[in-house]
Amino acid sequence: MALVLGIDGGGTGCRAALADAAGRILGLAEAGPANINTDVDGAAANIMAATRAALARVADAPDPAALTAVLGLAGGTIRPAVARLTALLPFSRIRVVNDGITAARGALGDGDGIMAAIGTGSVYAVQRGGALRQLGGRGFLMGDEGSGAVLGRALLAAAMRAADGFRPMTPLLAAILHEHGGHEGIIGFGNTARPGDFARLAPRVVDGDDPAARAIFDAAVAGLDADIAILQQGARLPVVLTGGLGPAYARRLEGRWPLHPPRGSGLEGAVAMAVALAAGEG
Is residue 128 part of a domain? Predict the structure, then answer.
């Protein structure tokens, strides 16, 4: 039985799905992180652990070397990491892409549309006429606009500016300063914090009614709206907002764009791409 493999992997774990040539999922499994930007060897080991566990759930399953695989991974755009990972894996045919690509394929299916995945980080994808293109992202330091990490960083920066008298102090900004021990505490936090640490402050921005929170989120919503307008190129393509903050942005953009729920997950997107690759279409 010819099977294909889809992998969805990131910094917290990876998921594997085995499917037949029609895309019907036969076996699912999970394993540890698969971020090839930080640990190629560890990612390879966890990808194989998830693959073997998924194979164990399928009767008369083939050897991993017989599989056609598409891997949507954090760090999937880094060519040296992709080359090293490919050399470590046994699959007969393999395609490694960024996890934003497989997320977009799952969210949009075969149709034209725009996906914005907004969680700790952020990334866009546009699909037109079957061609899928990823844009944005670039990580916390250089991009990830509108993401939880960037919103959290903006809140901390606003608190310090308010303490300096450059903007009005609000109850939320005063609370942030108190919790972190003032300027020095915020700077110390920023020197060691990872994106996920900043992102833990995001709910206080998107869910609160503090004037500072509203100003930060209003600016983020306006930025997302402007980016979607550019990506539309004058069209009215369906827009799918995914990720942990997707629903919050969707509430603010309702009526502005034709918003649709995602058709599927990133793992389902990886499986669909693996089916196409096996059929010679990928």
Answer: no
Q: What does DSSP assign to residue 168?
A: -
pLDDT, tens digit (0-9, with 9 covering 90-100), for 128-162: 988 888 888 777 788 889 999 999 999 999 999 99
Range of the structural domain that residue 272 is part of = 4-109+263-278
Q: Please report whether residue 134 resides in a domain.
A: no
Q: What total of structural domains would you count in the chain?
A: 2
Q: How far apart are CA 222 and CA 217, in angstroms?
A: 8
**Burial class of residue 125 in the structure, from the number of CB atoms within 10 Å of its CB (0-12 exposed, 13-18 middle, 19+ buried):** buried
- CA–CA distance, 129 with 72 (Å, rounded to integer): 21
Whether 82 contacts 36, CB under 8 Å: yes
Using alpha carbons, select from 91, 101, 96, 93 the residue that is nearest to residue 34.
96
Residue 280: how many other CB atoms lie within 10 Å: 7
pTM for this predicted structure: 0.81
Chain centre to alpha carbon of residue 57:
28
Report residue 182 as tokens: 């003032």
Q: What is the CA radius of gyration of the chain?
A: 21
